[in-house]
Design brief:
This protein is an alpha+beta fold and about 230 residues long. It has 2 helices and 4 strands, in the order E-E-E-E-H-H. The longest helix is centred in the middle third of the chain and has 126 residues, at about 85-210.
Length: about 230
């Protein structure tokens, strides 16, 4: 049997009976359904042993409705342990304040970290966007470089063709000029030969005119023919 402290209070005369504790801590020496106790909840059923871990009631044992579903539970609450002393409640309150402050600080830190993570995520997203743009620009530059190289290759081929054409034209011009010069030299040679022949013919005609005047008319015609050259 559980021994009750003199300062223990009942849920029927305690102002906190409507303030049923929702947060408890498991304790193997005070757990399970209290069948051996005479206390019954509003359902007239045995109560559940529990230990509070909330506010200044932390560590106090109590009895509550044993229904498993929250919506079926009644507001029955029977404290087994008396309230802590004023000094103890003050210390517990200070500890809870420290705990709440630490939680608030942790929440603020988490919010700060969350904001920093969000900013880092945005920066990372912008970086990925800029990096993707840089990669696209690089690929475009590589494509343009490839096109430029192809254009330069085509231009080189065209220049080579023009060089070959110019070289062929130059060779043809030189060949034609050499042929013209050869023909000119041949004509000059033939002209000189004709001049020599003409001189020889004039000498023959002169001799014939001296020897025989009868051939004068014929010689004259021959001379006229020679003069035409």
């Amino acid at each position: 049997m559980v021994s009750w402290s003199e300062g223990s209070s009942s849920s029927w005369d305690d102002d906190s009976m409507t303030n049923q504790l929702s947060t408890t801590i498991p304790y193997y020496e005070w757990s399970g359904i209290a069948h051996e106790l005479s206390y019954r909840c509003m359902h007239l059923e045995p109560c559940l042993r529990q230990v509070a871990i909330q506010s200044t009631h932390i560590g106090r044992r109590f009895l509550a409705c044993a229904k498993e579903k929250a919506k079926e539970k009644c507001c029955y609450l029977e404290w087994i342990d008396p309230e802590w002393s004023v000094a103890m409640q003050f210390c517990i309150g200070q500890l809870w304040s420290m705990h709440d402050k630490e939680n608030d600080d942790r929440i603020r830190e988490n919010l700060k970290l969350g904001e920093e993570n969000r900013k880092m995520g945005e920066e990372l997203r912008f970086f990925k966007h800029d990096f993707a743009k840089l990669v696209a620009d690089k690929e475009e530059a590589i494509n343009q470089l490839g096109s430029a190289r192809l254009a330069i290759g085509d231009l080189k081929k065209e220049i080579e063709k023009k060089k070959l054409a110019h070289h062929y034209s130059t060779n043809l011009h030189e060949v034609l000029r050499a042929k013209a010069e050869k023909e000119r030299d041949q004509l000059v040679l033939e002209r000189d030969q004709m001049k020599e022949e003409k001189k020889k013919l004039e000498c023959i005609i002169a001799d014939m005119m001296k020897e025989n005047n009868g051939y004068k008319d014929k010689v004259k015609k021959l001379k006229e023919i020679c003069d035409e050259f």
